Amino acid sequence: xxxxxxxxxxxxxxxxxxxxxxxxxxxxxxxxxxxxxxxxxxxxxxxxxxxxxxxxxxxxxxxxxxxxxxxxxxxxxxxxxxxxxxxxxxxxxxxxxxxxxxxxxxxxxxxxxxxxxxxxxxxxxxxxxxxxxxxxxxxxxxxxxxxxxxxxxxxxxxxxxxxxxxxxxxxxxxxxxxxxxxxxxxxxxxxxxxxxxxxxxxxxxxxxxxxxxxxxxxxxxxxxxxxxxxxxxxxxxxxxxxxxxxxxxxxxxxxxxxxxxxxxxxxxxxxxxxxxxxxxxxxxxxxxxxxxxxxxxxxxxxxxxxxxxxxxxxxxxxxxxxxxxxxxxxxxxxxxxxxxxxxxxxxxxxxxxxxxxxxxxxxxxxxxxxxxxxxxxxxxxxxxxxxxxxxxxxxxxxxxxxxxxxxxxxxxxxxx
Amino acid sequence: xxxxxxxxxxxxxxxxxxxxxxxxxxxxxxxxxxxxxxxxxxxxxxxxxxxxxxxxxxxxxxxxxxxxxxxxxxxxxxxxxxxxxxxxxxxxxxxxxxxxxxxxxxxxxxxxxxxxxxxxxxxxxxxxxxxxxxxxxxxxxxxxxxxxxxxxxxxxxxxxxxxxxxxxxxxxxxxxxxxxxxxxxxxxxxxxxxxxxxxxxxxxxxxxxxxxxxxxxxxxxxxxxxxxxxxxxxxxxxxxxxxxxxxxxxxxxxxxxxxxxxxxxxxxxxxxxxxxxxxxxxxxxxxxxxxxxxxxxxxxxxxxxxxxxxxxxxxxxxxxxxxxxxxxxxxxxxxxxxxxxxxxxxxxxxxxxxxxxxxxxxxxxxxxxxxxxxxxxxxxxxxxxxxxxxxxxxxxxxxxxxxxxxxxxxxxxxxx
Amino acid sequence: xxxxxxxxxxxxxxxxxxxxxxxxxxxxxxxxxxxxxxxxxxxxxxxxxxxxxxxxxxxxxxxxxxxxxxxxxxxxxxxxxxxxxxxxxxxxxxxxxxxxxxxxxxxxxxxxxxxxxxxxxxxxxxxxxxxxxxxxxxxxxxxxxxxxxxxxxxxxxxxxxxxxxxxxxxxxxxxxxxxxxxxxxxxxxxxxxxxxxxxxxxxxxxxxxxxxxxxxxxxxxxxxxxxxxxxxxxxxxxxxxxxxxxxxxxxxxxxxxxxxxxxxxxxxxxxxxxxxxxxxxxxxxxxxxxxxxxxxxxxxxxxxxxxxxxxxxxxxxxxxxxxxxxxxxxxxxxxxxxxxxxxxxxxxxxxxxxxxxxxxxxxxxxxxxxxxxxxxxxxxxxxxxxxxxxxxxxxxxxxxxxxxxxxxxxxxxxxx
Amino acid sequence: xxxxxxxxxxxxxxxxxxxxxxxxxxxxxxxxxxxxxxxxxxxxxxxxxxxxxxxxxxxxxxxxxxxxxxxxxxxxxxxxxxxxxxxxxxxxxxxxxxxxxxxxxxxxxxxxxxxxxxxxxxxxxxxxxxxxxxxxxxxxxxxxxxxxxxxxxxxxxxxxxxxxxxxxxxxxxxxxxxxxxxxxxxxxxxxxxxxxxxxxxxxxxxxxxxxxxxxxxxxxxxxxxxxxxxxxxxxxxxxxxxxxxxxxxxxxxxxxxxxxxxxxxxxxxxxxxxxxxxxxxxxxxxxxxxxxxxxxxxxxxxxxxxxxxxxxxxxxxxxxxxxxxxxxxxxxxxxxxxxxxxxxxxxxxxxxxxxxxxxxxxxxxxxxxxxxxxxxxxxxxxxxxxxxxxxxxxxxxxxxxxxxxxxxxxxxxxxx
Lengths: 416, 416, 416, 416
Hints:
Largest interface: A-B, 85 and 86 residues
CATH superfamily of the largest domain in chain A: DD-peptidase/beta-lactamase superfamily
Oligomer: homotetramer
Strand content of chain A: 5-15%
Helix content of chain A: 40-55%
EC number (chains A, B, C, D): 3.5.1.2
Shape of chain A: elongated
CATH topology of the largest domain in chain A: Beta-lactamase
Low-confidence stretches of chain A: none
Number of strands of chain A: 11
CATH architecture of the largest domain in chain A: 3-Layer(aba) Sandwich
Binding site for substrate (chains A, B, C, D): 64, 114, 160, 191, 243, 261
Domain STAS (chains A, B, C, D): 316-391
Structural class of chain A: alpha+beta
Organism (chains A, B, C, D): Brevibacterium pityocampae
Mean pLDDT of chain A: 91
Number of helices of chain A: 14
InterPro entries (chains A, B, C, D): Beta-lactam/transpept-like, Glutaminase, MlaB-like_STAS, STAS_dom, STAS_dom_sf
Strand order of the largest sheet of chain A: 2-1-7-6-5
Largest sheet of chain A: 5 strands, antiparallel
């Protein structure tokens, strides 16, 4: 059987072709030369299943879609305090080229507007890094995210440099407030080269899925960012990624997203998947016309609205088996707070007043720290109530299962 | 065994007592009389499990926390087009009392600032509704959300009316742009009475959980709002609920939230749970000092950051059992897109080239529309590939299981 | 001979008829009923010579042109400190209906925008004055300015009251910041009645000439305002009278001005004259299309640009007559700083080293305080140098001519 | 006798020493090294009488006081249309370093804020001028204004260049909107060199007096700017010269002014005089503390408020002498509209019904174009009424005295 998901995607991009409006970016000649009918889409689950259709091998410059990833690199490298001191995280209520810096702090409002992105790039590699060193670090991380070696489109970079007055203005303002210390030329060159990295929709979907998966590239299994960094990056994308239409986008589409002027559009659903589309014609806000249409359709048809997540908590308790010998609470899936709560409820409901209770983690994928603490506390209490408590954990999902008194739970016989 | 969750909550609110700053609202005398040491917290899962601690039976006026619920009532009653024509959904980048209306449309920026909330209330019950009728409708809905009959604190309402110059100004501006057609006095009175509804943290947690649960009150099981309305309300809370600090709040705490001047704070995690705290002293932004501290701690300790959701997709396939007679794909939990994708992957991997495939939904809680379509399409393709396809669905989770040619899948013998 | 000035004015308004654009205000029906072809103009010198042409007897509502005069009444009655604490004097950079109040002080930006004008009106007659009392005081002063009893157009006042949502919003905001303490209804009613005072272009030209003449109505000779008040009112008209086009207006026309929505336009040239036009069709900024054209033409043709004032200082020394007996320095005109400087130069140049010097003020109209001090100081120094100093001042223009040692200058024989 | 004016000025600056607050500009080291007790003041009448006291020979960098003069040079050289297309003339309501460009036009708000001044300087000498050429042209004009050869402080220019990030940002923004076409480095260098021109308070007072005198340097007699240019420059100084405090300044001081960060302050009274002070300590708005105090005192004591001009019209008619032979109307001073009006009134009042009327211009300094037209029209009408009209004009103040029918008025016998 062939998976229908690619067919779904094909149907959706075919349907999106009916949107004929929009203009290809023409502020630099090299962008305007692109075939406006190019169209591709890709989807990658947090488990690493990648689907793509249309012009999914066509490489285009990443442009502003680089912003969330450069922000993630900066957060990873310098820590949130240092980054926070240089770039805020509030929506600016303005367009992408808003230049205003905070009156008190001299900081850009957020890392998704251009002036904020220039500031972010300068944080990478330290104060005295060369342009090549900064861009090299970024390219390495972007490549790790995509799972393949990426490269820079030198024609795009050159053309952008030849039309960089506004960026130069922003870099000088950042120098003036002390956010940038390198020369304005270096700052702008680094930023422009970052934006000229060539990607396909397949790359972007996997990069997005890495954020959605808490920082672990779901295909290579490499941890690229910490979970905390991914949380912060996706939160800022949600509030500021679509510039001054972020509120409406999150209401109607509900997928944290970032668009690029070359026609790319990327979205993430935390814990679930990454999405990407490519189609050059842009709407007046600078977002890909067909890309927006595809995201809207996916959100509606596929239930991908962040705020429309289905209740999942009860899934954690796979089964409660009560025999004469023991009550077995079999858990599964990832164990977050809701999973832990479901387990505790099952434990409270334990029918047998004082018999053996087996907690079975054989089917559990990963255990959140909170889940681990809740399971351990539940086991401690069960023992405190007089139960004999056993833990079945063949994969070792529950590290350091100390029951609070230095002892560890017994392991049941390998019957099941 | 006693559940440790209440003990967790107790520990957290005890810890929050160390935050001694903040000022009780004193713009009306009746609010300033409150005991500043009152402190309560509650948590309600989307499954309807309610935990509460501290002063959890103390009733206080809901104030601005009424805004998301009134917005939901208006959306439910009038539809998103009518509401959208009167109130936007972008963060205003300003404080709660920002009065600016959109230059072109005359609309308030969003329903979370006061001027937007006044406009929203006027949408309820239709143009010619009396104050009593509008407020009656709201009180009914709020009561349905809380699962008990709520009432209005007449002293608070009276006191607010006596200090309502700014609200009157906003109502007159809304009249001027045609958003409000009733008298300014009626508009302000309706809004003030809405804000004076008395609630406890238990009420608020359940009300929040109803939004998180897609509109079904998780304890009474009553559908109060549609899933689409809950999505929109939570999205607007995320982008504008914490006024001009919404970006930082979503980054650091990651829980769509709304605070009230009486000391309440409410949060929702879509698909997961509702939260509420009560503690009167407010920070300069008007948010409960201890409430904020509790939310921060819950987000950190309990992994409740919206953008830190754990991958859950693979949970959907409970088991794939291959026997000589058949391959059984047992599903479980709610089936959303990721669940559907996991099922389809299992179907593609089906070892038996042409035998019987049983899709077992016995453990499935609910099936998203997208999940239903993906399961049906998978079954159609399996049959197209030559399989005999059977559906085990004792609870009828998959309505209208048409295989595309007018036939329905067979039901396996009730062996399992 | 008939003065050609009226013929000039007639020619200018005839020429202005070629401007056929603009729309008559129609936000209230009573204004929209006016004949759009009505056209009048008037000019009154600071000496009280009044010229008028066209529909110069047609009465229309004064509207916003009342603002500078109400501001003057408030300044006169309450003093600049009290007024300044309630209303600022900076251009707002916004349109007439800008509602923003200063964040720190809660004050409107200036008295020429509507919200500032409402605040100003409430200063008149004291905190507890009734609407009738406030409006009565204003009407008395306006009548003194016009030199005849003015009245209120009750139909206009009623119609404005029926469309006063925006004004009510402003009044409530002013109550909220404590600038207004009366009820919003009273504040708006007072302001609306002030705007409904009926005037002709002849009235307005004389009212303007009173400001230009330092507060003395040039026809009746009554002092209505102090010189300091007139200075302040004209300065605020210059910077904020034409709302957000004030800079361009002062650059191209150069006459401090104020327009009204009924079609009136008033201008002042300090020390020189007052101007007024009436023609109902308005441009998009709310200024009379033909009125603006007439002002532009007058400024260009008649050299009326405030910044294009001709040097006048040397005029002060009418004649220096040197005889054997004495050197007579005959002064004339008003004596300001430049006049005083010219006198002192003549005194320094006094040919006779030690003879008699006669200072002749027979032709002097008025002596500024600064002029008086400069003349006295010059006479003291002449005497200190050994001159016999005499003062001819038949009209008593130089009060208290003490020479610094308790003596007064001699008076020459009445020969000349 | 010694003129008391210098003594007045000395007294005023001595009094100003009591103001000990303010900080010397320290954003570049070379400015911070100045002696903060330096204090000078100068006053130059439109007739060219120059008074100065204190450190009146100390040279300091002109800084922002160069802005109105560079604007005048640009207007003179390129015409108002070209300049207007690049720089607006509205107050920005913001501080001196406001960077916002008009959204539609890309223009700076006005030429008094830094970004506007950079744009203005680039208009001088044409698009392809070198830095040296542009600065050379400016230096020539500034020298003509001062009446002596000025030079540039190279240390100041170098130091400013080393701290020019903000200026570079502004230049790049102007390049981005097309207002500036030269390189940003050239634009900033030209502007910085313009600001580093060395001047004394005597220079500034004469430069200001040239504006007040309609463009004729009152000491050298050289016409440097046209009257129209002076009008525009002084109007823009009035509305925007003191940045966001311009309204209050014009209300309380009433002298169009411009301050510089080195401690200079310049003011003009059209038709009357120019003023300048120098004292390095600045208030938080960047204006010289003692300079402001001196201006306030001069305005109050010396009646120099622009809006407090004394009525002067009647001064024009020196005498009306009625003899049997003729009625002689002797005029004097400059003849503007008000002077013309006074003459016409005298003509209308002519007692003799049909005798000879002599118009005597022997004492007239200059005749405004409007005055000329009014006198001629009066003479034509007198003749039309049957009078014999004669003109006494020994200095030829009334060029082309055509009476409307090709004839010229007779000249009376040189009796008087």
